[in-house]
Amino acid sequence: MEAIAMVEKGEATERIDARTASGRLQRGVLFEFAAYESDKLGEQWRETHDHRRYKLGVPATGRPRSGYIWHPRRLADGNGGGTVQNERYEPDLAGDAPAYAEVYRRFVGGTSFYALCGWLNTHGFLTVRGNPWSVQVLMRYMDSGFPAGLLRVHDPKCACGESGTCPHHIFAPGAHEELISSELWQQYQDERDSRRKMQPRSVRSLYPLTNLAKCDQCRGTAPVESRDRKGPDGQKQLVRGYSYCCGRRSVTSTHGCPGFWVRRSVVEGELHDWIVREAEKMTVGEARLDRADFEPLIVRLAQEWGVLLDSEKNALLKRLVRRVAFRRGEGAPVIANVHPLWEADPWADGGETSSRSDGAAE
C-alpha cells in the first residue's frame, strides 16, 4: 500500500508521498501549522475568558446562575437580528435569591449538603436547568463563591494548563452584587474546611439503625435528620439526629415516594421493646433451633441497651437483623417492622435500594 498523505487546500488536494524525505518534511510542516492554529485559537479563547473575568467582572461563559437574573450581552429580536447591551447579573430578590442565601446560613449552622438539597427541592427551588438539586451540584454552586460576589478562577501562577480539573483556584471580584456578606462567606469556608478535615465517622455519626432503617415503600435508605426545636429558653436549637425519614422523600418531596417521618426516640424505644420480647421468648421455650445462635446477642442487647454506645448498638443489631422497614399507616402512626436474620427475608424478591449512608442528613 502506498504511504500517501492527502491534505486539502481549498478546492485542491495536494498529494504528499510520506515515503520520501521531502514528503515527510512537508507532512511535518503541515502538522506543525495545524498545531499552531489550534494553539492560537486556544490562546484567543483564554484571552476572551480573561477579558470577561478580569475586565468585565462576569463569568468566562455567560449562562444563568441560581439566585440571579441574567441579562445576556446580546438580545435577539426574533428576526435574525438583535441588540447589544452590557452583560450583567442582578439578584433575584423577589424570587429565589433569599433561599440561596439561607442555605449558606443553614450550612454554617450545621446542616449537611444532603439536607440542604432536600430543603431546596421540597420548597420548589430547582437548578437553572429545572432539575432537582443534588449534593454535588449544590457543593459546586456554593463553593463557586458567586453568591458572595466572587468569581472562582484558575490560579494564574499555576502552569498546569488544566484549569477545569486543577484544584488551585483563586477568587476574583465580580461585577455582580452579592447575595451573602463577606463575613458569612468566610464562615462558610471555615466550616467547609473543618468538615473536610473530619474523619468520616465524625461527619456521619452512627446511630442504632445506621444503614438498617429502610422505607418499606421505595425500599430506600431511611437516614436520620436534624431538626430545629425550641429549647428551655424559648430559642430554636438544632437537635441532631432527631428523626428517621425516607431518604428519597426528603430530597424529592412526595414526587419520589410518599415516604414516612418518625422521631428517632420513638423508633428506638420500640426497637428496645422488641428486643426484650425476643429475650423473653427464650425463657418460655419459644425460640426455634435456627435462632439459637442469636440468643447471646439478644440477651446482651436487652440487658445492656441503656449503657451501650449508639455505635455499639448498631454493630450488634447488624448481626441480628437485616433491616427495620418503616411504613406510614392509614390514619395511624408509622409502623416499624423488624426483619430478623433468623426469619425468611420478606424482601427476597429484590428491589432494595440505598440512596446513601445514614447520618449524612445531619
How would you explain this protein's 3D organization?
By secondary structure, this protein is an alpha+beta fold. Helices cover 36% and strands 20% of the residues. It contains ten helices and 14 strands. The chain has a three-stranded mixed sheet, with helices on one face. A three-stranded antiparallel sheet has the order 10-11-12. α2 crosses α5 and α8 (264-283) packs across α9. The longest helix has 36 residues, at 21-56. Mean pLDDT is 79; it is low at 1-12 and 355-362.
Largest sheet: 3 strands, mixed
Could you name the ranges where pLDDT drops below 50 across 5 or more consecutive residues? 1-12, 355-362
The value of Rg in angstroms is: 30 Å
Helix-strand sequence: EEHEEEEHHHEEHHEEEHEHHHEE
Quickly count the domains.
3
Count of individual beta strands = 14
Mean pLDDT rating: 79
Q: Given the helix and strand composition, which structural class is it?
A: alpha+beta
Shape: elongated
Major β-sheet strand ordering: 9-13-14
Report helical residue fraction.
25-40%
Beta fraction of the residues? 15-25%
Distance between the termini: 68 Å
By DSSP (H or I, 4+ residues per run), the number of helices equals 10
